[in-house]
Design a protein that fits this description.
Number of strands: 16
CATH superfamily of the largest domain: Nitrogenase molybdenum iron protein domain
Number of domains: 3
Protein name: Periplasmic binding protein
Strand content: 5-15%
Organism: Methanothrix harundinacea (strain 6Ac) (Methanosaeta harundinacea)
Pfam families: Peripla_BP_2
Shape: globular
Largest sheet: 5 strands, parallel
GO biological process, one term: polysaccharide catabolic process
Helix content: 25-40%
InterPro entries: ABC_Transporter_SBP, ABC_transptr_periplasmic_BD, Dockerin_dom_sf, EF_Hand_1_Ca_BS
CATH class of the largest domain: Alpha Beta
Strand order of the largest sheet: 5-4-3-6-7
Length: about 450
């Protein structure tokens, strides 16, 4: 499917062609998926028999046991996978590299929010024996997991701490340093699932969805994985189908940028390229992303440094500032945001500090009150950006998404999939200014803060 992104001039053709060049679908990245669809079943056994007797060509995933030959042993491996009895599951990780995962997996160390959430979604919280700094500091969101062994920051974990938990599996957040981690963790399978790669041009075939499916097989929770994928893709399609009906001239222009924390504020703005989840979220809602005019937009780097002069001259309709609650190294940043925040006063003050910058005073977004600060959890949760996109849609195109309740989607995710007892009416600060969801009620801040929000507004 080709998604036509709104860019002036020839850029619109360039984006359409670039997305058209992406694969229309992706096979489940598990060896044994011989017919290259999204599951392993009896059809794969029949396909292997066809390869053996010469009726079919060999496929990339036909060698189920990865011994270099296509034979009856591959059929036995596929039968074991179907029965949930395999002792080794050979997969392609999120980088497309082959990895052998030894089963059963009983003890897991998880890095960062998305892996912690996905393990929870797949009914396997009880298997987590270690977490990184970010999860350890997110007690409100992960009341159980936050108490597990803290193994340090995800890029360079405390390897002795990891090994002390006697894990079977380390789920790594980053596509980098995988070999280094594997070399330092003998006997531990290190897996990068690829959750950080959603794809709005083909969400069903993205590395993100493939990663969810693969972990379902690793943890013997295939049905639960499919339940979550159906729910997720259903809402993605709902948002995308509504956005598709917005006329080109009515699509607002949005700057997606990191909040200018002291340790980042070098006098430039940090915006994001097409591969970043934040940009994917915004584009899904039907807006024009300001960075799409930049030559680096389709590059391999997630962020792009731009001068304030460019931002001011471009004069977007909206500015969305991405917040971070806890850094990879365990530093907690202000303002408090996400599940651990209980009062929007801090995020309100941060917004006021940004909008009071004299050089921004004449920008439309500032004058019209269209500067939003969004929780860092939107970029790094296990929904591939769905929750953040729902809040963005309500903020950027409220008429188009008049009956969309992002908080209801968010609450269902928390209760039905994460299995947590967290009431968004009582806690959590995810978007400021909050957005109205009907009857004067707000989404993005606790309901008890509604009166103070309207007073401040």
């Amino acid at each position: 499917m080709t998604l036509k992104l709104p860019i002036d001039g020839f850029g619109i053709v360039f984006v359409a062609l670039a997305l058209a060049a992406m694969p229309a679908s992706a096979a489940l990245g598990i060896f044994g998926n011989t017919n290259m669809d999204d599951t392993i079943d009896q059809l794969d056994i029949e396909h292997v028999r066809g390869i053996i007797d010469g009726r079919y060509e060999k496929t990339d995933l036909a060698d189920a046991n990865r011994d270099g030959a296509i034979d009856e042993e591959d059929i036995a491996q596929i039968e074991a996978i179907i029965a949930g009895e395999e002792t080794v599951l050979n997969i392609l990780d999120g980088n497309g590299e082959p990895v052998a995962v030894h089963k059963p997996v009983e003890r897991i160390v998880v890095e960062y929010l998305d892996n912690a959430e996905l393990v929870s979604i797949l009914n396997s919280k009880d298997k987590v024996v270690g977490v990184d700094y970010a999860v350890a500091k997110s007690e409100a969101q992960f009341p159980d997991l936050a108490r597990r062994k803290n193994v340090g920051q995800m890029n360079e974990p405390d390897y002795e701490a990891v090994l002390s938990t006697d894990p079977d599996l380390l789920l790594t957040f980053s596509p980098m340093n995988i070999k280094t981690k594997a070399d330092n963790l003998p006997g531990v399978d290190v897996v990068f699932l690829g959750l950080y790669f959603p794809d709005i041009s083909d969400p069903a075939g993205s590395k993100y969805v493939d990663g969810v499916r693969k972990l379902g097989y690793i943890l013997d929770e295939e049905e639960r994985a499919e339940e979550f994928i159906r729910w997720n893709l259903g809402w993605v399609e709902e948002i995308r189908s509504r956005a598709a009906g917005v006329p080109e001239e009515e699509r607002p222009k949005v700057l997606i940028s990191a909040y200018p924390y002291a340790h980042l504020d070098t006098g430039t703005f940090r915006t994001y390229s097409m591969i970043d989840t934040l940009t994917q979220m915004a584009v899904l809602t039907g807006v024009r992303v300001m960075a799409e005019d930049l030559p680096e937009f389709f590059g391999s780097s997630y962020n792009i440094q731009v001068d304030p002069e460019w931002v001011i001259e471009s004069d977007p309709d909206f500015i969305y500032l991405h917040l971070v609650a806890h850094t990879y190294s365990g530093l907690s940043l202000e303002p408090a945001n996400g599940y651990d925040a209980t009062d929007p006063a801090g995020i309100r003050a941060a917004r006021d500090a940004f909008t009071s910058r004299p050089e921004l005073a004449e920008m439309r977004a500032v004058k019209d009150g269209r500067v939003y600060l969004g929780s860092g959890s939107f970029r790094n949760d296990a929904t591939g950006g769905l929750i953040g996109a729902a809040y963005m849609a309500k903020a950027f195109l409220p008429e188009v998404f008049a009956d969309l309740d992002p908080e209801a989607i968010h609450q269902e995710y928390i209760e039905r999939f994460l299995g947590e007892d967290f009431d968004l009416d009582q806690g959590g600060v995810f978007l400021y200014p909050a957005v109205e969801k009907g009857d004067g009620r707000l989404a993005g801040i606790p309901e008890e803060d509604s009166e103070s929000f309207y007073t401040a507004s």
